[in-house]
Design a protein that fits this description.
Length: 519
């Protein structure tokens, strides 16, 4: 792999590791964390315990000012809520305060070097007035995502970031990756995150890239959670301009090569989508020789998912299974090279703010495309119901992405994918809310709820199958035809009249290939 695509990790030691522990039941975890990172070639500093807010910030500042090597790791085990850490004196430190200490301006010793943050927080009710109004400086932000979610892998990720997104970009904050696990409990028997880190890193860090390791850690965490039960774990991965591959490359890697890994599987809800192996085809090919739209940036672009599964209005039925749909879409986009974020059940105003903030992200200037996906009940073909029961017209979704509103995405392809659940017959609308939208492709999957209240379930499977099997060499418009073929296939065992795809190209100047990332 070319050096300009990979962060340098050749120094000895690889870097310093700072561990902060505020959890009484995690003393053994801290010992295991020291073993893990020592074996990976890091210098692990003496762990800190029960720091007050000012002591926490001072400790972080002192660590940032140390002479650093090729990378740095910060680990925090303590209390937290949402996007905040809670120190020993019950004061809140937002993630933005935490990471700001390590941006290129405040920490020049680590400028251009990878910085990894592992945060294991136990839920607490402690909040500050500032925490309600603070904006999170992340590439991926999620609202209580489930264990199967990665969002951001970033997924770039997340994870599940997995993730509701609300951002204020700070250009100096870059080369950061956050693995965040929120625990609905107090880790009374230690943290399952430590066990997942121990099993995955010691076995696979010798040759696996960080995003791959993150997925394996989250999968291991899910398996441990299912086996043990009890406290619930909500993981996600967030990245801030983490633009290169990162390998730990521990010193003993050449002496002890691990066995070849087995292909991972997507575990689907029983009786929902057919069980199948996730294997997005990825090919090595010259830069776009067959596409008029470039889509070779790393990542290809950002993907926003807004999912509505709960409604405050009694007239609108909840659709709890849609959480799974959002997770599945997030994993699909992540595996195709997009940094995915999920926003769950926003009100009308929150949804509009989320979309506007997503369109204003500075990363769009450096990336080649964008994906916007909304899943929920629809009032008509141009309107979704929001979490508060208020309608969200698609004109409010499109307008932030016009050439005049979003210069960073001007002349770049934009995919709008809407899964619209139809509860009653729609009136035919003559209006076109996408008049000023250019270089965009609008795809609707319309699913009609039957008289018995059953929701058809094959449309998203058909869409996923088309992208997994054909996105590596098939442009977007033909992908929709592939999805329609899967939907109409007798093997799907569905009444095709219950679901159908609609496509609306918007002033496209060429073909758009999603081009999954190279392995």
């Amino acid at each position: 792999m070319a050096s300009n695509e990979t962060y340098r990790t050749r120094s000895s030691p690889r870097g310093h590791v700072l561990i902060i522990n505020d959890l009484e039941n995690c003393k053994k975890d801290i010992e295991d964390l020291q073993k893990i990172f020592t074996s990976l070639g890091f210098n692990v500093l003496k762990p800190c315990r029960n720091l007050k807010k000012e002591e926490l910030k001072e400790t972080l500042r002192n660590f940032s000012e140390r002479p650093h090597h090729d990378s740095a790791v910060v680990i925090f085990y303590g209390a937290g809520n949402g996007n905040n850490l809670v120190s020993g004196d019950h004061l809140v430190t937002s993630f933005s305060e935490f990471t700001e200490i390590f941006n290129d301006k405040n920490c020049p010793n680590l400028a251009g070097k990878p910085k990894l943050f592992i945060l294991n927080t136990c839920c607490t009710d402690v909040r500050s007035e500032e925490s309600h109004n603070s904006e999170v400086d992340d590439t991926e932000v999620s609202l209580q995502q489930g264990l199967g979610e990665l969002t951001g892998l970033s997924t770039d990720g997340n994870t599940e970031f997995e993730i509701a997104q609300s951002t204020v970009e700070i250009s100096d904050e870059r080369d950061m990756c956050l693995l965040i696990v929120e625990v609905d409990g107090q880790c009374k028997e230690g943290s399952l995150l430590t066990k997942a880190l121990y099993q995955v890193l010691l076995k696979h860090a010798c040759d696996k890239e960080l995003m791959t390791l993150s997925k394996m850690i989250l999968q291991m965490l899910e398996d441990l959670q299912k086996a043990k039960g009890g406290e619930q774990y909500y993981p996600e991965v967030r990245t801030m301009k983490f633009l290169h591959d990162y390998y730990f490359n521990p010193p003993k890697a050449e002496q002890n090569p691990p066995p070849p890994p087995k292909h991972s599987k997507i575990h689907l809800e029983r009786g929902y989508f057919p069980q199948k192996r996730l294997s997005v085809k990825q090919v090595k090919q010259p830069r776009n020789t067959h596409s008029d739209y470039s889509n070779w940036s790393r990542p290809h672009g950002l993907a926003l998912i807004i999912s509505f599964d709960k409604y405050k209005s009694e007239e609108l039925p909840d659709c709890s299974w849609r959480q799974y749909n959002a997770n599945m879409m997030s994993e699909l986009y992540n595996d195709m090279g997009y940094r995915t974020v999920i926003y769950r059940n926003p009100t009308n105003s929150e949804a509009r703010s989320c979309i506007e903030e997503f369109s204003a992200r500075r990363e769009h200037s450096d990336l080649d495309s964008a994906v916007i996906t909304i899943l929920g009940l629809a009032k008509d073909c141009n309107t979704f119901y929001c979490g508060d029961g208020e309608p969200l017209h698609l004109s409010g979704v499109y307008s932030p992405f016009t050439d005049t509103s979003c210069l960073a995405l001007k002349r770049k392809p934009k995919l709008f994918f809407f899964h619209m659940t139809q509860m009653q017959k729609w009136e035919i609308s003559e209006e076109s809310p996408r008049k000023e939208l250019r270089d965009a492709f609008v795809v609707r999957l319309v699913s009609k709820v039957g008289a018995n209240g059953l929701h058809p379930k094959k449309g998203l499977w058909a869409w996923r199958n088309a992208l997994e099997e054909h996105a590596h060499d098939t442009h977007l418009e033909c992908l929709i035809s592939k999805a329609e073929d899967y939907l109409h296939d007798d093997a799907c065992n569905t009444r095709v009249s219950d679901e159908h795809f609609e496509r609306e190209p918007c002033f496209l100047t060429g073909k758009f290939f999603l081009n999954p990332k190279k392995l």
